[in-house]
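Q: I have 90 residues here and want to know how they pack in 3D. Can you give me a structure?
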Amino acid sequence: MAKDDTIENRVYLFDSLASSYVSAASELLSSEDEKVRARAMRALADLAYVSCVVADTGHLPPEQVRQRVLGALASEPPEGDAGDKSRKRK
């Protein structure tokens, strides 16, 4: 797969996932509570990550794609941990 195809697939997948999420979570994303907004933005960032993984691993069987997504999520500290404030999403 060409690099341009992968980028196009990432954008297409994220657009589809994010538009559904934004429709469902618009109140959270515009909340006056900073913590609520931050959680909603992290969810949006996770959707971007999943879009990239799925687009970049189209050659793998679904089980391996699932493991890559879950493995990345498992490596992050749970929300509310001491390191949560300093953590930055790539």
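Q: Anything worth noting?
A: Residues 80-90 have pLDDT under 50 and may be disordered. The CA atoms of residues 41 and 87 lie 14 Å apart.
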